[in-house]
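Is this the right way to post C-alpha cells for a design question? Let me know if I should format differently. Anyway, here goes:
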C-alpha cells in the first residue's frame, strides 16, 4: 500500500511527468477510476483534462479475449489475428453494434454534451489508476492515434513489469511511479480504493474545464519514475 487514495496517487504520478510540462499535452483519464488520478496530473502540468472512452470488442464465447476496440468519432481498430477467432462477419458486426451502442451511452453519460478535446498533433497522456493486463490502455492508445495524437504516453501509479514492457509496442512512452515484479490487484496499493462514480467523473471534468489550474505549488520532488 503506497497511495492514500486516487488523488494522492495522481499527485505522486505527476512528479514523474514533469518533463511534459510546457508541451502540447492533453491528459486523458480512463473512466472511471483513472479520472481522479488524471485530474491531479492535468492540474500539475497545467494541461486540459478529458476522458478517453473506449470499448473492447470481445469474442462472444470468451469476452476477456479482445479482437479489437472502438472509440469516439468512429475510431475502430481490429486486430489482424481476428481470423483465429473463427468469428463470421455477421458475428463481428453484432459485437461491434452492441459495443458502439454502449460506447455512445457512456460518452453521453460522462460528457454531458461536451465535445471531446482535440488531439491532432498533440501528446496524449492516457492515465489510469493502475495497470493490470494493459488491455484497456492498449485500446486507448490505438484510439488516441486514430484521433490524430502525434505522441502517446501511458501513465499510471502502478503496473507490473511485464505489462509495462508489453505496452512499449503501443505507446511512445510508459511511465509508472512503481513497477513491481508482479501485481495481484491494483486496489492492494491503495488505502482507499472506493469505486469512482459517473457523478465523480462529471464533477472533475467540470471543475477542470472551469479552472484549468496551473502547476500546483508546494509539491516535493520525487525520484525519477520507471520508464519503459
Amino acid at each position: 500500500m503506497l497511495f492514500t487514495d486516487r488523488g494522492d496517487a495522481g499527485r505522486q504520478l505527476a512528479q514523474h511527468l514533469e518533463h511534459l510540462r510546457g508541451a502540447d499535452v492533453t491528459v486523458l483519464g480512463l473512466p472511471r477510476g483513472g479520472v481522479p488520478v488524471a485530474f491531479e496530473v492535468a492540474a500539475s502540468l497545467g494541461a486540459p483534462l478529458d476522458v478517453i472512452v473506449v470499448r473492447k470488442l470481445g469474442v462472444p464465447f470468451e469476452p476477456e479475449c479482445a479482437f479489437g476496440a472502438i472509440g469516439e468519432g468512429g475510431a475502430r481498430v481490429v486486430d489482424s489475428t481476428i481470423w483465429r477467432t473463427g468469428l463470421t462477419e455477421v458475428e463481428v458486426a453484432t459485437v461491434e453494434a452492441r459495443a458502439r451502442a454502449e460506447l455512445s451511452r457512456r460518452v453521453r453519460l460522462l460528457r454531458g454534451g461536451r465535445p471531446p478535446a482535440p488531439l491532432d498533433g498533440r501528446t496524449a497522456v492516457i492515465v489510469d489508476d493502475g495497470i493490470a493486463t494493459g488491455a484497456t490502455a492498449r485500446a486507448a492508445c490505438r484510439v488516441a492515434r486514430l484521433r490524430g495524437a502525434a505522441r502517446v504516453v501511458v501513465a499510471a501509479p502502478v503496473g507490473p513489469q511485464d505489462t509495462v514492457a508489453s505496452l512499449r509496442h503501443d505507446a511512445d512512452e510508459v511511465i509508472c511511479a512503481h513497477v513491481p515484479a508482479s501485481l495481484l490487484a491494483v486496489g492492494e496499493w491503495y488505502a482507499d480504493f472506493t469505486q469512482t462514480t459517473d457523478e465523480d467523473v462529471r464533477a472533475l471534468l467540470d471543475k477542470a474545464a472551469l479552472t484549468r489550474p496551473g502547476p500546483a505549488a508546494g509539491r516535493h520532488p520525487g525520484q525519477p519514475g520507471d520508464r519503459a
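Format looks fine. Someone answered above. Worth noting: The first helix runs from residue 6 to 14. The chain has two domains: 6-52+119-209, 55-111.
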